[in-house]
Each structure stands twice: as structure tokens, then as C-alpha cells.
Amino acid sequence: MHRSGARPVSRAGARGKTPDNKNGRHVRGHIDGGTGMPHKRAAFGEGHLMPQSSPLTRLRHCLGSLPAACVVALVSVSYAVSYAVMIFGGSGDGLLQAGLPLMFITSVLCLLVICFTSSLPFMLGGADSNSVGLLSLMVGGISATMQRAQLSPAEILATVTTAITMSSLLVGLVLMLLGALRRGNLVLFVPFPVIGGFLAGTGYLLWTGAFTVLTGHPLGLDALGAGIELHWQELLPVAIVVVGMLGLPGRKFEHPLALPASLALASAAFYAALAASGISLAQARAFGWMFAPLSPGHVQLPVQVSWSLVHWDILWRHYGELLALIAVTTLAILLNATGVSLATRREVDFNRELRSAGLANMLSGLFGGVVGCHSLSRTLLNYRFGSRDRIATLLAALLCLVFALFFIPLLAYFPKPVLAGLLIGLGGGLLNEWLVRSRRLARGDYFLIVLIVAVVACYGFVTGVALGVVVACVLFVLDYGRVSCVKMEFTGATLHSKLERSAAAQAELKQLGQRVFGMRLQGFLFFGSANQIVHRVREQLQSPRQFIIIDFRHVQGLDASTSQSFVKLAQVCEHYKVTLILTGISEAIRRPIARAAFPGQAPREFADLDLALEWVEDQLLQHAAGDQSRDALHSSLAEHFDARELAALLARMEKVELAAGTMLFRKGDAGDSMYFIDEGLVSISLPLEGGGRMRLRSFGSATIVGEMALYRGQRRTADVVTDRPTRAWQLTRANLRQLEQDDPATALRLHAYVVKVIASRLESTNEAYRLAY
To answer: Region Disordered: which residues (predicted)?
Structure first.
């Protein structure tokens, strides 16, 4: 039996597939540790800690998970120390002493909570570099403000700790709500340039944080002009480390051990430079290059806060960083969860991951911890070391706790220039990605990124991001305004209703069809696109028009100003004495249009475009030549048959009189006859599951129906029912064969006539598709 903690049970199991996959198909699901068999996804908080087996097997399983646990613990401790220094290192040793335990609280709680509540049992969590960068800016800003006000260290510590606690609780609450409401995709609607500008602005502020770490003063004209008192002659160790860390921005280290290894190399370079310069540790600490010694006695879990010392007014000034922290953490969770899903080929429930991270942050906040989220690099490290269950994470959390309790004094030997180089490297990577490499973006998007960075540098995150969102919306409106909202334009000569008429009526409609102009709209209509519609209709009214049809079937919505544009359109049509027709209006669109005050008579409205076209065709034919329905069949057939042939054909047909609502034939009936409609109206329809019927096509006087099934020798494919009293002539298959034997010339003429009818229908269908696509 393989030990799942040491390696995957099988190659299929490591990739989230069962060994029974064939032809590329696989069975998705979690792999039960130690068995390699898939099981259903566990509910929130469920899942096996280790396989259900004998005590000896469980012991072997734990030992097999120990290598993964040790590596995960090492990386988690390295990140915890690094991020603690990043957040609290620039604000004084007192804050670092109190802040370091907070990072370990976050590491332990995120490891445990996310592991036991995530949709993947090997998912790991902890502090994230982007969230930590924002926290370092917030903590540094609060600390600098309070130091300038000459407040006591106790007040600074209480205010900073409260800010971190509130951040974790609020971030956790928002994440829980987003997951509970299944709104995990909301953050993905943030404009891409706004995200880029936000991250580039974060990079700039990280550089200013590095300046503060090195000098003890915030970056500004006053600090530069005052000539900050530094030990310039002894800056060689600092320069070596900072320059060495500056090589990181343009590189992406995907391996989770890259950051700890970089910090170790930078620290070794710092100490080598100290030795070469003859500077002792005491001198380096006096120069401010090292942290004050810490002892385990400084660690209190959780950290105790005196609420009377908290300055709430100063906290309120930094609400912008808190809003940014919520957005960045949510985005980081979704992106990291997506990365884990792609890398491990496992399905991830994003809303569940939000709830998981939300619970972890709320618990972290209750214990004074910082904001945490899912970790892509640490999860993949855990996965590649063979962990498929939760036992390795549990052991890693215990090891982190042991380090927090007994080995914190080692932090006193961490060089501050390494922290500055880390901040410069992280900030430089963001600036390189979003200010240098993003130049390939569209000109407007790149301009927006630069604008946000400039505003963030001058006025802060909230102003920069808010302005970026506003500008992005304006750019979107301008770009969307260039996209045509007209899906299709047509005239009465190019698009006809589903009512098939006689050949004479169709020829008449081709001549009169230019009196009709219509547009089928699409998308969301706002004032810009609505003005395009009015302008286009004005152009069309320069030609003789009688009807204007506007179809809203593919319109998702419209704003309030758009309804006023249609009022203007109605005024234009009234001026030209043209009938305005609106079709396909949904309830969401009808409400704003109904509130509009149309001049004179309101536009005509039909349920769909086909009904409107049928009504318009009736109006055109009625005003053109009056009622042509009487003897229309005889007149139409007389154009294709001489008197003898027509008499021979009618002699073999049977006249049928049908009341309205009569089923001429049903779907599935034998196709043994076709009908020549002499007077009345029939419709081809299909039954719907809800009980209604969908009309496919209608046939009026002087048309034929049912010929396709007769000629193909197949059963009926739809129902045909009379819409009003109808008189028709029925030609059965037996009579058609008799005609072919007795009078081949008339039968041949009949076949030619049917071919012309079918060709005419195909031509109309092709024209409709051409207009639509």
C-alpha cells in the first residue's frame, strides 16, 4: 500500500482522474487519501483527516505526510517572518514585537480553517503579498501620523492592532457574504485598466515604504530637502543588499521556495558586507540596520488591546486602504483558486472558497491576526509533495505554532535593508508589469493606468481608484457608442411575414415594400445609441416611407434618457405622416417607454416582428388593389395552366370546407395529400411543452400546403390548423398518380408549378438569413 502523504497513489490519482479513464475521459472528484478512489465532494467543513484504517496504517500515513508538512511549515514560517517585517518593520521595533505573533496567528488559522473548509483537501492558506503590501502601507501611515502627533508607543500599538483586527473582521465578513450570496464573480467585472492602475499604484507606494524603512522618514520633498542624516560612509552593506534585491522585479519565481531562498541569500550578502567593512552587529543595530532583540516572553496570543488608547479618528482616515484590501483579497482568492484548479485538474467551488477564506479571516480577526487568503504557491508545493488530504496541513500548523512560541528571537538577526530590498523588488515588479510591459495595451487603457498611478501617488488609493472607475466608465460609454445597436435593417421588399400569399400578392409586395423600413435592435440602449437610431430613421425618411418598424426582441434594457429619444422619433414620424410601430417589447423595456409622453397618437405595438409585418402587408395590399382573395386560386393557377389542364387538375381534386380551428393534419400523420388553399387561412405550428403553440408559417389564398410530405413520401412534421373558415382543394397521392398516367403533360406542368413555389419559399428564406447574418 502506497503512502499518499509521500507520493500520489497513481499518476491518474495525482491528476484528479481515476485509473479507469479511457479515450481522454476521466472521472472528476476528490481522491480519498491512501485509496486513490474518487468520492463525492465533501460538504462545507467535511472530509476525512486520514484514511479509515488500522492504527499502524494511520501511523505510516502520518510519517509519510511529515516531509510535506515540514516543507510547508518551513515556507509558512518564512513567509510569516518576511511579511511581519514588511508590515511592522518600518514602524519601529515595538510594533514588530507585537506584530510578529499576529502573523503566526494568521498562518496557523489560515492553514487549518482553509484546509478543513475548502473544496480541495490539500488547499493551503496564509498571508498574501498583495494584501500584506496594503497592510504595510496602512500600518506605516497610521504609525507615521501618530508619531508626528507625538503620541505614546502604547497608543500607536493599540491603534495599529485595532486597525489590523478590524481589517480581518471586515474582510472576512464581506467574503462570507459574497460566498453566501453566490457572488464570487462580481470582482471580475472591475475594469482591467483599473486593476492594473491599482496594482501599479501599490508598487509605487511599496517603493515609498522602502524609503521609509531605510531612512526612518516618509518620502516627500521635506524629507529630501532636509538632507536626511544617514551614515553614508557605512552604506556599503545596505547598497549591496538593496541592489541585489533590485534584480528581482523583472523575474517571476513560481517556485514557493524562491522567496525564502532570496531572503537567505540577501541576508548572507548583508553579513558578508558587514564583515568586509569591519562593522559589528552592535554598530549595525545602532545605525538602525537591525531589529532590536526579541524574546519569547514578548509573545502574547492573542494580543491584548486597551480600547481607551485607540485613536478612532486616525483609523477613519485610512478607510481607503481597507476598501482596497477587500477588493484585492477577493481578487487574490479567485485568481489563486483558479490557478490551483488548472494546475491540479480539480474542480473548485469559488463561492465555497470565498466562504472558507471569510471564516478564516473572521477567526483571525478575533485573535488579532492579519488578513489571509488562499495561497497558490504553497498549495502547489503541498500537492507536489504528494499530499492529498488534510493530515500534512495539520502537522504543518503545529510546527508553525512551535516556532512562534520558542524561536522568535532569531528575528533580531534579520537585516532591515533586506526588507527594503524586498519592498523595492515587489513594488518594482508591479511597476514593471503594469507601467512598462502594459504599453502594449490600447492607448486609452494605458493612459488610464498611468493616470491612476499619478492620482494614487498624490491623493491616495480611494481617489485614484474612484477616478479610474469613473474614467473607465466614460471610456466604455464612448467605445460602446461606436458599436452599432442595429442588428438588422430591412424593408418590406426584403423581409416578409410568415404568412405566405399568392404569387400576385407577393409581386405586389415587392413593389410596395420600399414603403416599409425597419430595424431590429440589440444590446443595451442608452442615449448615444438611441440618437443613432433617430439619425438613421431621419435619413430613411428622405425616401417615400409609410411605415417604420422598430423591433426590441434582442434588447436587454435601456436607460431613462433613451425613452426620450423614442419620443423624438415619434415626433419625427408624425411630422412625415409615417406610422411608427414597436415590436417585441419586454416588460423591463415597456415601463420606461410607457412613462414617456408621446405626442399625438402613441406608436402601434405588436408582440413580435412577424405580426407587425403581417399587419403592414395587409395594409399595403388593401390600399393598393382592394380585396384580392376571391377567386385568387383560380387566377393564380391560370397563369401556369391552360384551360384544359386546369380543368383536368381540378377534376382530380376534392373540395373541402373547414371551420375555424379544424386540424387539417397532425404531426406524424401520413403525408398522402396536399392542399390548394382557395379561401381562408391555415397555420403550420408545433406544440410547446407549456401547452401553447409556436407558429412556423401561415398560408392564405392561392397557396399550397402539405406538398413536402407528399413528394418525399414521409410523415407530417408539424400540425396544420385553420385560423378562420377555409375552403381548400385536396389532391391525394392516388389521384396524383392517376393524373400522371392519364394526362402526363398536365402532371408535368403541376410538378413544375410546385417546384416554382418551393423555389420561391427558399429564396425568401435565404433573403431573411442574409439580412440576419
So the answer is: 1-35
